[in-house]
């Protein structure tokens, strides 16, 4: 079983941070690759964070309402 990091991507050139607005999945939920995981507010625009892999959402590192820098680990997915 591998553990995949879910990172905050950089959606725009000037983007340096983002705020997790809403998690769309809970720890223990199954997720498919490219499935929406969370809504993130960045540069006054809300973007949908998609899962980088299929598996189970094992851990949420950044709770809703918290702001982190680009490339920060937001969560972990365990793959089969």
Automatic annotation (TrEMBL):
Protein keywords: Acyltransferase, Transferase
Leader sequence segment: none
Superkingdom of the source species: Bacteria
GO molecular function, one term: lipoic acid binding
Residue ranges annotated for the Lipoyl-binding domain, each copy included: 3-78
Listed PROSITE patterns: BIOTINYL_LIPOYL
This protein's GO CC annotations: cytoplasm
InterPro entries (UniProt xref): 2-oxoacid_DH_E2_comp, Biotin_lipoyl, Single_hybrid_motif
Cofactors demanded by this protein: (R)-lipoate
PANTHER family xrefs: DIHYDROLIPOAMIDE ACETYLTRANSFERASE COMPONENT OF PYRUVATE DEHYDROGENASE COMPLEX (PTHR43178), LIPOAMIDE ACYLTRANSFERASE COMPONENT OF BRANCHED-CHAIN ALPHA-KETO ACID DEHYDROGENASE COMPLEX, MITOCHONDRIAL (PTHR43178:SF5)
Entry protein name: Biotin attachment protein
UniProt organism field: Sinomonas atrocyanea
